[in-house]
Amino acid sequence: MAKTNEPQEEVVQFYASSKRIHPKLAKGRFSNWRIIAVLMTQLVFYVLPWLQWNGRQAVLFDIAARKFYIFGITLLPSELIFLTGIMLVSAFGLFWWTTIAGRLWCGYACPQTVYTEIMLWFDHFFEGDRNKRMKLEKEGWTAHKIRVKAPKYLVILLFCFWTGFTFAGWFTPIRPQWLDLFAFGLSTTQWFAIGFYGFATWFMAHIMREQVCFYMCPYARFQSAMFDKDTLLVSYDAERGEPRGVRKKNQDNANLGDCINCTLCVQVCPTGIDIRNGLQYQCIGCGACIDACDEVMDKIGSPRGLVRYTTEAVLQHEYADSDIKKRLLRPRVVGYGMILFLVACGLVYGIFSRDLMNIDIIKDRGMMVRQNNEGLLENTYNLRLSNASEETLYLQAAVKGFDHIELTGLPPTLEIKAGDIINVPVQVATYPEYADKGSHPIEFEFRYHTEGNQEWRIIHENSNFIGE
Ligand code: SF4
Ligand code: SF4
Asked: Which PROSITE patterns match (predicted)?
């Protein structure tokens, strides 16, 4: 065929179907850390909802009752600012950590990685290591394959169900939910939460796996903006490793680098990449390739660390690996750290110094003003009183604004049980000569004390009184 200088057509695919990655099981210190991280995160997720605190679930985001319990702290809808604060602290914590340690969060604690790792454990347990799994994948649906896969799918199904059940238990009390499960008494909302999270676990961790990190996770895309040349990253020391090549007997291998091109670092990689190609956004920093390569280096008698957690500056000979710790106190890390510290302090102070009683005063718009039987002008208000503490609160109220002003509708001392939110209509009345036409500022004063501490705390709330 005659050659032409015409530009050749290139087909660009916007969607590339991917092959299933069957990583080899890595063994070593980072793999052990990953196992610990998986167990710790799952311990928190699966066990915390079962813990009790003062006779109720220790951590419960009770959306139906609009109360969030975190051990001894009860957050009410009006205090969602604190939840925002907790999220803000978590986000700054993640930014700060990413600047120091790159993608360690992704590799060790991100739910997607953790659940994918658990699915890999199931794969490994039921189907064997990489080679066996790859062979099984190529096999048609034979009786042998069905015999191997069926128990795995059953275990995954149970695992996803249990994960969904636990997820629902963070939002509705898990102990009654457990009893309702066997009594066929779960509500549609509970079934939806269980099904939703169970399905998400199966789909994201079993079906999609590393594709979520590649194509769906926004954090994977923008976190490199937080890296600098002192950030700890999994890197291949190309200067030491190249030229790579297999050692041959009875040949001079002196011209070769330390990399023997065994590809074990690629085989263990859960995202299927070759770390020797440099920094790639698909690398989740899990360290499996470090473990694999260290084992190889031990076998060939070379020092460990051909693939290691190090910084770009080290690879550029700006300082040695042993000086990485000294670079921790750099402006970006200190800056993020200070913001994190200040926001965390503000949050802790805010939570522990907040009023245990939340009060909303809502003016009755239906009837602005009326004259009562005694000839006084009267306005009606709805008091929404929320006890955000773990104890019964005792409340007294008064109102000021005119030389003569009366507050009715409340008992002398109102008892509000722990966590209760109550609505109380009250009336404020004064003589017509004090309140002419229009709006007049008034002030409510509430005093309350807890069951255990008799010291009064005082809250002032402003409102207005509509005159004739
Ligand atoms: S495991 Fe180490 S020696 Fe083997 S290919 Fe990877 S970098 Fe080279
Ligand atoms: S390249 Fe190494 S650190 Fe990165 S994802 Fe693969 S195994 Fe983990």
From this structure: 4FE4S_FER_1, 4FE4S_FER_2
Q: Which of 31, 286, 290, 309 to mutate to test the pocket of ligand 2 (most atoms within 8 A of CB)?
A: 286
Total domain count, the chain: 3
Q: Is the CB of 307 under 6 A from ligand 2?
A: no
Among 262, 291, 298, residue to substitute to test ligand 1 (most atoms within 8 Å of Cβ): 262
Report, as an integer, the average pLDDT of 386-390.
Answer: 87
Whether residue 181 is found in the same domain as residue 54: yes
Q: How far apart are the first and last CA of the chain?
A: 100
- Sign (positive or negative) of CA dihedral 250, 252, 254, 258: negative
Residue nearest atom 8 in ligand 1 by C-alpha distance? 259
CB atoms inside a 10 Å sphere around CB 209: 24
* Residue-level pLDDT at 12: 52
Q: Are 426 and 442 in contact (CB under 8 A)?
A: no
214-270 pLDDT, tens per residue? Answer: 888 888 877 888 889 999 999 999 999 999 998 877 777 778 999 999 999 999 999
Ligand with an atom nearest the CA of residue 308: 2
**CB of 106 closer than 6 A to ligand 2?**
no
Same-domain status, 76 and 135: yes
* CA–CA dist 234, 212 (Å, integer): 20
Q: What is the pLDDT of residues 404-428, one digit of tens each?
A: 999 999 999 999 998 888 999 999 9
Residue 293: nearest ligand to its CA?
1
Q: What is the pLDDT of residues 439-448, one digit of tens each?
A: 999 999 999 9
Cβ of 114 closer than 6 Å to ligand 2, yes or no, is no
Q: Are residues 219 and 242 in the same domain?
A: no
Do 104 and 197 share a domain, yes or no? yes
Structure-block tokens of residue 277: 């190609």
**Ligand with an atom nearest the CA of residue 269:** 2
In a domain, 13, yes or no: no
Q: Which residue range(s) make up the domain with 248?
A: 230-325
Which of 302, 325, 348 is the last residue before a domain boundary?
Answer: 325
Instruction: Based on the fold, state whether residues 155 and 257 are members of the same structural domain.
Output: no
303 and 238, same structural domain?
A: yes
Per-residue confidence at 67, pLDDT binned at 50, 70, 90?
A: confident
Mean pLDDT of the chain: 91
Question: Average pLDDT of 4-20?
Answer: 60
Q: How far apart are CA 75 and CA 347, in angstroms?
A: 13
